[in-house]
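tool_call predict_complex ligand=nicotinamide-adenine-dinucleotide
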Amino acid sequence: MSTISFDFRGKGIVVTGGAQGIGFEIARRFLASGASVSIWDYSAEALKAAETEIAKNPDHKSRAFFCSVDVTQMASCAAAAAKLPFALDVLVNNAGITRDKSFVKMTEEDWSAVINTNLTGLFNVTQSALPKFSADSKNKRIVNMASIVALYGNFGQTNYAAAKAGVIGMTKTWAREFGKRGFTVNAIAPGFIETRMTSAMPKEALASMVAKIPAARMGQVSDIANACLFLASEDSSYVNGTVLNVDGGLVV
Ligand SMILES: NC(=O)c1ccc[n+]([C@@H]2O[C@H](COP(=O)([O-])OP(=O)(O)OC[C@H]3O[C@@H](n4cnc5c(N)ncnc54)[C@H](O)[C@@H]3O)[C@@H](O)[C@H]2O)c1
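tool_result ok
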């Protein structure tokens, strides 16, 4: 339950990796705020489950679109952008994966899979989606999902930390390049959020991380959705090129 209500009626949103986890919660919250939302994901199973869940609310169902997209493939992103049933106001670059291993054990495949999804994926999606933004909108928004590990590193995440640090560099560059065209571009750096991504981490590693969080709990997908809706709203129009840590104070 949120105590802040956002009004996204008439707005068009794309959420990549939107079929589960953080992305699904973000998509759900945009739908609840009146937007039309296109969910881009490569997991057929997750897309089906998301569609079934959203169909429980006929009003949301009427504004939700589901698109099978692999963000690592430019052609896939371009095809999805060409099929968008609305002009775009907000793009949320959220799709991401982990392939954790210590550096000495990390294979070239582990490296490439994470870089291709978490870094090149943003390039592919944003290049494809940029021409689809509404020419009239004075509040165009791009929100990129980074991670606090980009800021302080993490054992076993050479590939992931490098990709997410790249996301922050890309965010700041786009904030400069697109600012005059009515865009803001910001990143969210989540801490440890309860999703399937963190449930794959070793329990002891997770427990020792939680012990260091001043807020004394893991984050919830709603914590990230709250930040995302704010950064996507007209109320954040003077917030540009920033990285918003949503981590319970882990990185202070
Ligand atoms: N969970 C956390 O603690 C945490 C912390 C920091 C950052 N993040 C970031 O938040 C984002 C969401 O993470 P999550 O925890 O919800 O993960 P998740 O695994 O639950 O969801 C990620 C979604 O992205 C989709 N996806 C993956 N590769 C894709 C591709 N090539 N093309 C299209 N879709 C693809 C998956 O199918 C999935 O639906 C990621 O970018 C992740 O790096 C998560």
